[in-house]
Specification:
The complex is a heterodimer of chains A (750) and B (281). Chain A is built from 34 helices and no strands. Chain A has 750 residues and is mostly helical. The longest helix of chain A is centred in the last third of the chain and has 29 residues. In chain B, 43% of the residues lie in helices and 12% in strands. Chain B contains 9 helices and 7 strands. Classes of the chains: A mainly alpha (750), B alpha/beta (281).
Chain lengths: 750, 281
């Protein structure tokens, strides 16, 4: 049955070979016969089928557009083969077919962004192939390499030249940035990653030559079609050593492989140069080729030069060479000088050859650590492992014997020599040799073990001596200075900001920027709340504390308050808002404390504190007193202050009476009271009381005060009516006028 | 019967044969009697797996055609090419070569033209003999750079070694001098490996004269048979039983065995320095 089926399939194939346009009709008919299924496990059919699919999609006789339409139908078949069939030739053909189909499915997915199914299967196939990459048999690996090349090709952007649009070039340039199934960025990243993987191959094992030449031969087209990747590939190629196998025994197979790799590299380089004769990199390529040629001549000339001794086998030469190398190592061993008796420095411990020319080499000559790195890393790489091990062993044995000696010395409690050591110790790091550097690096962890008392302390991190403790006065002084500095900074900010005052309304939060307001908020809260819970509740109880505070005024709050007060007084008219917000903070803090103390004290022992005086009243009075010294009769800003501070009481208002003793400022005092009466109803009684007091105590204030009292509390006036009729009648007239429109009158009075 | 092939003949009972290629016409006698006798003994049975070969020299006249004949006579699918820009044949003097275009000038027309020019000269230097051989192998010299891999070669059905080459692909390319080897590798870079199909490219250095070409042809046939044998073993080494039966070299695949095969071939033919590379068509 198989033979018959194969014959039918073969005739279908010849039909397609005769005319490529038959492929789209033949493939759907062929797939059910060849695909893997539990019933169909005929290896011949599978081999034939895999070959056929690979051949069909590689064929130049039918156009890519037609292939693209058929491509998705073969994906499940390819996937089935990859997952269930172990045969090498089937897998080889399947990977080849996948390499041909991948760009087609890729382009299909680009133009059909919602057809995720095909891409899913293709991705599964890709994953399967990439998994095989490193482990499969070399015959399959090379096909995987070609597949990789295809993927890199389509997943890197091609040349987009609007003058010569190349529609057949399937590249990353076709993918839109926001493709839902194949995101541009991840495709690009995968492309780069796979290119790296491809390039890694040529730096790997050369012994079979197969994957190396397969990779080299796949790079030419990438360089040509993807200029973006060309530099990366070329720089990797310049690092490529085609004669790597030269160190291996020169068997006839290795000879063939070396020559083949060299020749393949040459062909690739020549191709790059011929493709683009004006390329700047051609000089570099030429150089590389010459270098490679010289290397090859040396490699093969050496063996030809030794040909005259025919008795000696070819391999024997190499062995003789190797033996000599091996024999050299023990020779170098005795040159190590023994350590001098007695305590030794680190430098002596690591110096294997004190007479060597590198002893005096000063590493500090390298000012630039980068430069040192550039030298050090290649040196480290070129260190002979055997020599290094030997050197490490010497240092190790020295170290061991020294630590034994140190233990014995410790038993005898001999600490004297350590001091001597310190004198000898030179902190200059002077490597004598490449090995010395390595030795030292290797030896570093060993410094954890204390065996010498002297030098290690010098290497310990330096600590500043501890400062003597500050006295109380000093603490206060420095604290004050800090506050002073904060306000100094504030006034400088002040000047800068005066010009651009932006009102951000409700958006203004405390300390959202570094502006004046933010600092004011911070400072006033620092003053009011910083130690609020500590200070106030104890106030009434601990007398000694209160005394101390009064005496030394250690409290930071007081320092800040002083600062704030000075700051405001310095330019009180412009900084009245600062005063108001500060006093608001004080008041708020007092309220909070009063509430909390009320709740806790009630809860704990039922002791109700006498209503806490708090800081607000004290500060407000102080502020007001301070301002009053400077207020002139035209300073209406006082009204603002009085109306905006959070709480008023008799004591504060009584200061207005004091102010009214100055005849010039009587009117201002009365206006203030009138304003408060009108716009701050809760304090009306207080205002009227104050006014009445003023009327009674201050004769010169009587006319102004009388006018107001006449309206608000005429009975006070009644007591005095008989004594001062003239004044009163005069005031009457004015009052009548004012009562018509109080607000306007306030304005007029100023 | 080659003892190596006999062993395989017996094995083939267990393993079903690969798809049989279309029937091949019986190979006509070549120009050289000894040649045929040699090929006869190396014929690869048609029910065996066969690699597809391609021989390349400068003008697709002497070395590549001799190798073509020998490979085709062993029933291996073979095509052949030249890598030069033109077909160049020796003329009456060294500075007057006979130059023809590839792909269009037939061997027969070249033969007739040279025969008309100076029969004695071209008989004496062996050109007519060579062209007579060539026109029995295929129609005209083909240029490698103009070859489109994968394009069916149904119109070449009369060529020797056609069977198996109908789809226009090849597994092995054998060039006859390093210049051609380089040209092939470079051209394959230019072709870009669109088919994603691996191809082993070999170079066997052969001097361009009739005697060397004959020896070189034998060497190429030796290489071809060795490669074909290894490839056949890979095909047969399928499945549990097959995999376990094959020991040593037979167990590893064809491709990775190629360097070894070439190395042992080189030991047999030390006068023809060989090169090899795995490229893509």
């Amino acid at each position: 049955m198989n033979a018959q089926t194969l014959q039918q399939l073969e005739s279908a194939r010849s039909l397609a070979l005769g005319d490529g346009s038959y492929y789209p009709t033949i493939i759907p008919g062929v797939l059910p016969i060849i695909e893997y299924s539990p019933e169909n496990q005929s290896i011949e059919l599978q081999r034939w089928g895999a070959d056929f699919i690979a051949e069909a999609f590689a064929s130049p006789t039918w156009p890519p557009d037609a292939k693209e339409n058929v491509a998705s139908s073969v994906l499940p078949t390819l996937k089935g083969f990859l997952e269930y069939v172990e045969d090498k030739s089937v897998i080889k053909s399947v990977v080849q077919a996948a390499a041909s189909v991948y760009p087609l499915v890729y382009r299909h997915t680009i133009s059909h962004p919602h057809d995720a199914r095909d891409w899913e299967i293709m991705s599964a196939i890709k994953a399967n192939i990439l998994r095989r990459m490193d482990t499969a048999a070399p015959g399959i690996r090379i096909c995987c390499i070609k597949f990789l090349q295809r993927v890199v090709l389509v997943q890197t952007p091609g040349i987009v030249d609007p003058r010569r649009p190349d529609h057949s070039d399937i590249s990353l340039a076709l993918v839109s940035r926001d493709h839902p199934i194949i995101p541009y960025a991840s495709l690009e990243a995968e492309g780069h990653g796979l290119l790296d993987r491809l390039l890694d191959i040529i730096h790997g094992d050369h012994s079979d030559g197969l994957v190396i030449t397969a990779t080299l031969n796949s790079l030419g087209m990438l360089i040509h079609r993807r200029p973006i990747a060309a530099n990366k590939i070329l720089s990797s190629l310049f690092k490529f050593n085609p004669l790597k196998l030269g160190n291996a025994p020169m068997t006839s197979k290795n000879k063939v492989v070396i020559k083949s790799i060299e020749r393949t590299t040459r062909a690739l380089m020549m191709n790059i140069m011929k493709r683009n004769p004006e390329n700047q990199i051609n000089g570099r390529i030429q150089q590389y080729l010459e270098h490679m040629h010289r290397g090859r001549v040396e490699l093969f000339d050496e063996s030809s030069r030794k040909r005259p001794a025919p008795a000696e086998p070819t391999d024997g030469l190499d062995q003789a060479k190797r033996q000599r190398v091996a024999a050299q190592a023990p020779i170098s061993a005795p040159t190590v000088h023994p350590l001098p008796p007695g305590p030794v420095s680190w430098r002596q411990l690591y110096t294997l050859d004190p007479n060597g020319s590198t002893v005096n080499f000063d590493v500090q000559a390298f000012k630039d650590p980068e430069q040192l790195l550039r030298i050090l890393v290649p040196v480290l790489q070129s260190v002979d492992a055997q020599k290094l091990d030997h050197a490490i062993n010497i240092v190790r044995s020295r170290y061991l014997s020294l630590s034994h000696a140190a233990k014995q010395a410790a038993a005898q409690s001999a600490t004297g020599p350590a001091a001597e050591d310190e004198e000898e110790y030179e902190p200059d790091f002077e490597p004598e040799d490449a090995e010395q550097i390595v030795n030292r690096l290797d030896g570093l962890p060993a410094t954890d073990h204390p065996y010498q008392s002297g030098p290690p302390t010098a290497l310990a991190p330096y600590k500043l001596p501890e400062a003597p403790p500050l006295s109380e006065q000093e603490v206060q002084k420095y604290g004050d200075q800090t506050v002073y500095r904060a306000f100094g900074m504030l006034s400088s900010v002040d000047e800068n900001q005066k010009t651009k005052i932006t009102k951000s309304g409700f958006n203004r939060l405390a300390a959202t920027d570094y502006g004046r307001d933010a600092w004011i908020t911070i400072l006033s809260r620092l003053a009011t709340r910083a130690n609020a819970g500590l200070d106030d509740p104890d106030e009434g109880i601990k007398d000694e504390y209160a005394v101390k505070r009064a005496k030394g005024s250690l409290s930071i709050s007081e320092a800040v308050r002083d600062g704030l007060y000075d700051y405001i007084i310095h330019d009180w008219k412009r900084r009245i808002d600062v005063a108001i917000s500060w006093l608001n903070e004080e008041w708020y803090n007092d309220q909070i404390l009063a509430q909390s103390s009320k709740s806790t004290k009630n809860g704990v022992n039922g002791h109700t504190s006498s209503d806490t005086t708090g800081n607000y009243q004290r500060c407000a009075l102080r502020m007001f007193d301070g301002i009053l010294g400077f207020v002139e009769h035209t300073d209406k800003i006082l009204l603002r202050f009085l109306s905006e501070i959070p709480a008023l009481d008799h004591e504060i208002l009584s200061r207005l009476k004091t102010m009214a003793k100055d005849p010039e400022r009587i009117d201002l005092a009365c206006t203030s009271l009138q304003y408060l009466y009108m716009f701050r109803p809760p304090v009306r009684t207080m205002v009227v009381d104050t006014l009445a007091d003023m009327w009674q105590e201050n004769d010169r204030a009587k006319p102004s005060a009388g006018k107001l009292l006449r309206k608000w509390r005429p009975e006070v006036l009644g007591e005095e009516r008989s004594t001062t009729p003239a004044v009163k009648s005069e005031g009457d007239g004015q009052l009548a006028k004012e009562s018509a429109n109080g607000a306007l009158e306030v304005k007029a009075a100023s | 019967m080659d003892p190596r092939l006999r062993a395989r003949q017996q094995q083939s009972v267990a393993v079903p044969p690969p798809p049989p290629p279309p029937p091949v016409e019986p190979s006509p006698m070549g120009m050289d009697g000894t040649n045929d006798a040699h090929a006869e003994s190396n014929k690869v049975p048609d029910d065996k797996f066969k690699l597809k070969f391609c021989t390349v020299c400068a003008s697709n006249q002497n070395r590549s055609m001799e190798a073509h004949l020998q490979l085709a006579s062993a029933h291996l699918p073979t095509i052949s090419f030249g890598t030069g820009s033109l077909v160049r044949l020796p003329g009456p003097s060294i500075d007057k070569p006979n130059v023809y275009h590839f792909n269009s000038t037939t061997y027969r027309s070249i033969h007739d033209e040279l025969a008309g020019q100076n029969t004695a000269l071209y008989t004496h230097n062996g050109l007519l003999n060579m062209l007579g051989r060539n026109l029995n192998i295929k129609g005209f010299p083909e240029r490698f750079q103009d070859w489109v891999p994968g394009r069916p070669r149904l119109e070449h059905a009369e060529d020797k070694g056609f069977a198996g080459t109908e789809s226009g692909v090849t597994d092995v390319i054998i060039t006859c001098e390093e210049r051609c080897f380089d040209a092939v590798l470079e051209d394959l870079h230019n072709k870009g490996g669109k088919m994603n199909r691996p191809v082993h490219v070999f170079n066997v250095d052969i001097k361009d004269n009739h005697e060397e070409a004959l020896v070189g042809g034998k060497a190429i046939l030796d290489l071809g048979l060795s490669l074909n044998k290894a490839a056949g073993e890979e095909r047969e080494a399928f499945g549990e039983s097959g995999w376990n039966q094959g020991g040593g070299a037979a167990r590893s695949g064809f491709d990775e065995r190629v360097p070894e095969i070439l190395a042992s071939w080189q030991d047999r033919w030390p006068s023809m320095p060989a090169l090899w590379s795995l490229a893509w068509v």
